Amino acid sequence: MRSDVDAYYPSNGRVILHVDMNAFYCSVHEAEEPEKYRGRPTAVAGSIELRKGIIVTCSYAARQRGISTGMHVNRALKLCPDLIIIQPDFYLYRKYSKAFMKIAYAYTPLMQATSIDECYLDITGSKQFGTPQQIAEEIQRRIDEELALPCSVGIAPNKLLAKMASDMKKPRGISVLRIRDVPRILWDKPCGELFGIGGKTAEKLRKLGIYTIGQLARTEEETLTRAFGVIGVWMKQAANGIDHSPVLEEREQNKSIGHTTTLPTDIQAREDVNRVLLNISDQVARRLRRQELVAGGVQITIRTPDMKTITRSRALATPTENAGDIYDEARRLYAEHWSWDKPVRLLGITLQSLTPKSESAIQLDLFEYEKQPKKESLTQTMDMLRNKFGENAVVTAGMLGDDPSVLLRNHKVRGTSLQMDFVNKEGLDLP
């Protein structure tokens, strides 16, 4: 005979939670300094004096005053003169991210972190902790009591519906969304509200006469595949609440490591672009080494002032963990695929084809192999100093100006802090 708890778990299905932190960056600052920020309109943004400063996220008190993510700081301050602008602190955010995910991980080893402030949990085998509702309530309560952070939790039979459920009640909500609920709850909503469908896809659907999720669910699969290819099959299934994607354990090796930087002012001068690429190369290489991986490919991301985004990538002849190699490839990709007279507002580098360093044969140049042990020793020393004193305790001279390609390769460093004038849109270093 099944217990009361067993009755909440399907015999042939899954139970998925989506834990989504509410206004995460602002909530972290409020948790750190409640006397300063609690209940007040706050926003995290960078370079508040410059014209390109944008709101990265804002508190719910700020949202009630008309502030929203992506808004320029100047406009936000006109709408809400008492808005408190906070400079981003990504090391602090990662600390809290690891802490809330540690709490979530206590209820199942099947945890998949998808960003710094959200994760999926497959709790199908977690009956010992209670019903799905009880588990969600306990996770939410512990995150609040132990970290002073609010979160919303979605409960569903798959990741798609769990994600959409967590958005239904914010802040501090817990929502259940079953497949049988989809027609009643979702079908009258615009297609753009279905998780995974962006603005351009929604516009293309409208041109086909498909305006709502319900209309999408009832559209012939052949019609969608003609217009969208294989993704058309996924869209029809998603509109009907069907999603078979598994929750990938966090222990699975990262498929890529990336970092992007949104700039306070558009840049196009070669030396400015190279300096930014150099800084990003150093950051992603450091994270690569931290995970004891090497990269077999490099991809760059460029975003224009009108928000057009392009990516270009290339496989490397030899896997690397070296910032100089990454920087050289990123610089080549930029020069080949972008014109120096065109301004950019965002730059990013993503390392691809990652493999464990222990399993990779890194070929050394005939004239460089004798220097390699010294280079690795110096790199390890720099990493150790940064671990102890912070990322900006040691910087390459190229980041401060002048011929960065040579300076990085030779590791000429200065013990100085590098003042960042841009908003870090962090490529996520998840726990």
How would you describe this structure to a colleague?
The chain has helices at residues 24-32, 34-37, 60-63, 73-79, 90-105, 132-147, 159-166, 182-185, 199-207, 213-218, 221-228, 231-239, 270-290, 323-337, 372-389, 404-410; strands at 16-21, 42-45, 55-58, 84-86, 111-115, 118-122, 151-156, 174-176, 257-267, 293-303, 309-320, 344-356, 395-396, 413-414, 423-425. The two termini are 40 Å apart. The strands form 4 sheets. It has a 5-stranded mixed beta sheet with strand order 5-6-1-7-8. A 5-stranded antiparallel beta sheet has the order 11-10-12-9-15, covered by helices on one side. Helix 5 (90-105) packs antiparallel against helix 6, helix 11 (221-228) crosses helix 12 (231-239) and helix 13 (270-290) packs across helix 14 (323-337). With 431 residues, it is of the alpha+beta class. The chain is built from 16 helices and 15 strands.
Termini separation comes to 40 Å
Count of DSSP strands: 15
Broad structural category: alpha+beta
Q: Stretches where pLDDT falls below 50 for ≥5 residues? A: 362-374, 388-431
Evaluate the radius of gyration. Answer: 24 Å
Mean of all residue-level pLDDT scores? 83
Helical fraction equals 25-40%
User: Which percent band covers the strand fraction?
Assistant: 15-25%
Give, in spatial order, the strands making up the sheet with the most strands: 5-6-1-7-8
- Choose one word for the global shape: globular
Q: For the report, how would you describe the main beta sheet? A: 5 strands, mixed
Q: What's the number of helices?
A: 16
Keywords: Cytoplasm, DNA damage, DNA repair, DNA replication, DNA-binding, DNA-directed DNA polymerase, Magnesium, Metal-binding, Mutator protein, Nucleotidyltransferase, Transferase
Active site: 118
EC number: 2.7.7.7
Binding site for Mg(2+): 20, 117
